[in-house]
Amino acid sequence: MSRLDGKVCVIVGAGQQPGATIGNGRATAIRFAQEGARLVLVDRNVDALDRVLTEVTEVTEVTEVTGTGAAAVPVVVDVTAAEAPGLIMRTALDAFGRLDVLHNNVGVGVGDAPPHRLDEEVFDRIMEVNLKATWRLCKAAIPTMRDQRTGVITNVSSIASIAGNVIAAYRMSKAGVDALTRNLAVTNAKYGLRCNAVLPGLIDTPLGVDAAAAAMGIDRDEYAARRAAQVPLGHQGTAWDVANAALFLASDEAAFINGVCLPVDGGQTARVG
User: In angstroms, rounded to a whole number, what is the distance separating the alpha carbons of residues 262 and 237?
Assistant: First the structure.
């Protein structure tokens, strides 16, 4: 359908950890490429980024490009680095001359714990990556989008922001992302910008299942089954579910959707209430 035909889309967190399934950022990059987007792919892992770059080049529907002559360009950088936001936005403008979509797939939760056991360094790291880096990326993109009088920002949050469990810092950071999203939506609407968030639930990704199972020392399939049992639909989602939600929000089909935090969770938050 070419729903993103010719749109310049920055996908932050486009790579993924090794695992049995596909990650959210990688799936989003592939879906955007299939729908005609010109991509700036960002990740700190050069090998993971190279893999995704090859995949999106193979499936891209882009027939004409500007600047570099490529349908996708990579940026290898840690999003917490001081230079990261500026580098990412300059790369988009140098390669394609504009910026239509910023997709922030940013998040860590290693070491998280209940508040009374949470280490301060862990808290700071989770907040630095999940919330502060997301805010800095949005801040860097807005001037260009305002000048264009158009643009879309989609932040990947989590249903943990509204239906969390014993973890503390991750939930607080993602609740902050939800609040940031709504604030951006309101303060930039008059400039033609839209900002929404996708809140994944229990998704079968390398980070959500493989890495977590390894950290707990249990079988991957056993852990995946535990997660599936918590979902009203009876199974986990896939990264394609998250990618398709992000695709819709980035497309003109969602032109009147602004300030929404959309759960993609198989009904889990509806069960929690």
Answer: 14
Beta strands in the chain (DSSP E): 8-12, 38-43, 72-76, 101-104, 151-156, 193-200, 261-264
- The catalytic residue among 170, 184, 227, 254 is 170
Q: How many Cβ atoms are within 10 Å of 185's Cβ, its own excluded?
A: 20
In the block, residue with structure tokens 């910008």: 193
Residue with tokens 């500026």: 86
- Three-state DSSP state, 10: strand
pLDDT tens for residues 159-212? 999 987 788 999 999 999 999 999 999 999 999 999 999 999 999 999 999 988
pLDDT digits (tens, 9 = 90+) for 84-131: 999 999 999 999 999 999 999 999 998 999 999 999 999 999 999 999
Evaluated on CA atoms 4, 5, 7, 9, the torsion sign reads positive
Q: What was the pLDDT predicted at 65?
A: 46
| CB-CB contact of 103 with 110 (8 Å) | no
The answer to whether residue 223 is catalytic is no
What SS3 class is residue 45?
A: coil
Q: Which residues of 10-45 are buried (b: 16+ CB within 10 A; e: fewer)?
A: bbbbbbbeebebbbbbbbbbbbbbbbbbbbbbbbbe
Instruction: Identify the structural domains of the chain with CATH numbers, from first to last.
Output: 8-264 (3.40.50.720)
Is 61:249 a contact under the CB 8 Å cutoff? Answer: no
Percent of the chain with pLDDT over 90: 87
Mean pLDDT of the 132-141 span: 98
Asked if residue 93 lies in contact with residue 66, where contact means CB atoms within 8 angstroms, the answer is: no
